[in-house]
Each structure stands twice: as C-alpha cells, then as structure tokens.
Amino acid sequence: MKPNYIKGVDATIQEAKRLNKKAAVFVIGGEWCPWCVILKKNLALSDTLDKALIEDGFVIGYQEVDKKAVDTSGIRDRFSIPGIPFFIIFDEQGKVIASTEYPGEKETPAEEAMDLYVKWVRSHNDDAL
Fold first, then answer.
1. Sheet order of strands, 86-90 included
2. Integer Cα distance of 63 and 85 in angstroms
3. How far is residue 108 CA from its own chain's centroid?
4. 126: pLDDT confidence band, cut at 50, 70 and 90?
5. Which end of the chain is more exposed for a tag (fewer CB within 10 A), N or C?
6. pLDDT, tens only, 103-118
7. Residues 51, 64: Cα–Cα separation, whole Å
C-alpha cells in the first residue's frame, strides 16, 4: 500500500481519533487475491481517492489479512467482511459509517474505479463536500 497509509485498522482509528478525523481503511490480501492486486495497482495509478479522502477529513489506513482459511486476525468477523478487498469508513469516534467491496469490474480503468470509491464515500459521509 502507499507509504502515507497507516498500517492496521486499530492504529488508523486511533490516529483518526487523536486528530478528531474520520478513518478510511482498506482491508486487503496478498498476491493470492486478484482483486487486491487490481486495487493496489489502481491506487498506485491514481491519486483521486487519496486527495478526496484527505479533503473530506479522513485518515487513511490499511489492514492486511491472510486467506480466509488461515486468517487468525479476527478482522473479517469483527467487521462482517464477506470478501476482500473491502473498504470501511469510520466516524471520529471509530464507529463504522459504511463499508463496501471493490466498486468496479476487473477491466474498470484506475481513474474510473477511484471515482467510484469517491462517489461511494461521499454518498455515505455527512461532512463531505
């Protein structure tokens, strides 16, 4: 993930609370997850989502998980994650506002996929512009 992203859902929420900001967390897998590979590639190709999240007052983070059969982190159960990659936004107190799976198709261009995330976040974020 990007160097400015905080590693770990709890660390991201803690930093967001400290700054009185909202948190946005990507839950991702490794190379074994083709959709996660697409998400990572698209995030690297486009700053659209990062810019929008920062503009809308979010701290950005990520949480890596193992394959479901060997995942002992408890993250999937904690946030009722049906599949990955998964994206969760939290309010300033660390409560879940909303969550979603990857919004595009495998063929969706990077910029378009990131625009879909921005539209989704702003449709669920009362404080977004």
1. 6-7, 58-64, 22-28, 86-90, 96-101
2. 10
3. 18
4. low
5. C
6. 888 889 999 999 999 9
7. 22
| Nearby residues of 53 by Cβ (< 8 Å), 6 or more positions away | 24, 60, 121
Residues in the chain: 129
**CA–centroid distance for 71 within its chain:** 19
pLDDT at 2: 84
CA 118 from centre of chain: 11
Q: Give residues with Cβ within 8 angstroms of 112, minimum separation 6.
A: 104
CATH topology of domain 6-124: Glutaredoxin (3.40.30)
Tell me the domain boundaries of the chain: 6-124
